[in-house]
């Protein structure tokens, strides 16, 4: 069983402004690989976003741009089942930033750990990442992309083991959680029809 978790932080309100990314690969025993990088979004930073994640424009001056980083990210994501906490946000950052740089979409399926957490731990008052992580005794530093990806991955490892299923696919099937999909010409959000890729020109 492999779980690939991803998290983005953004410089401002635009989904094309990724300024950091964390990816964590885990199996049923825990974490097996991690990747983290700052990203230069070539955009202004909003003070509120900096307040949330602590990353400033100066921090990313020498960081790679997304298109420079993409080949390495694609190696982690292509052909995988990817999870993220509030996946609609992270998947839209991924798609819109690929559009911005006119890069091809990878082929991947994805699941939202918020949706799965609501099914596995319905007794919680809310299913924010810090709430679900604390409930499962997972310590992390919130709004750091690597830390958030690590927490999401470990939550899914715990969920798979607690529910005594073989992998995250079977966990999703048990709770009737549909997967989203990104592919060359567009994407499928969970439980809805295909959407075509929009023009990359902005």
CATH architecture, please?
2-Layer Sandwich
Residue windows where pLDDT falls under 50 for at least 5 positions: none
Helix content bin: 25-40%
Roughly how many Å apart are the termini?
39 Å
In quaternary terms, these chains amount to single chain
Q: How would you sum up the major sheet?
A: 8 strands, mixed
Q: Would you tell me the overall average pLDDT?
A: 94
Q: Label the structural class.
A: alpha+beta
Notes on the protein architecture:
One of its GO terms (cellular component) is cytosol. It comes from Sediminibacillus albus. By secondary structure, this protein is of the alpha+beta class. The protein has one domain: Ribonuclease H-like superfamily/Ribonuclease H (Nucleotidyltransferase, domain 5). The protein contains seven helices and eight strands. Strands 3-2-1-4-5-6-7-8 form an eight-stranded mixed sheet, sandwiched between helices. A hairpin with a 2-residue loop joins strand 6 and strand 7. Helix 4 runs parallel beside helix 6. The longest helix is centred in the C-terminal third of the chain and has 18 residues. The protein is globular and about 45 Å long. The model has no long low-confidence stretch (mean pLDDT 94).
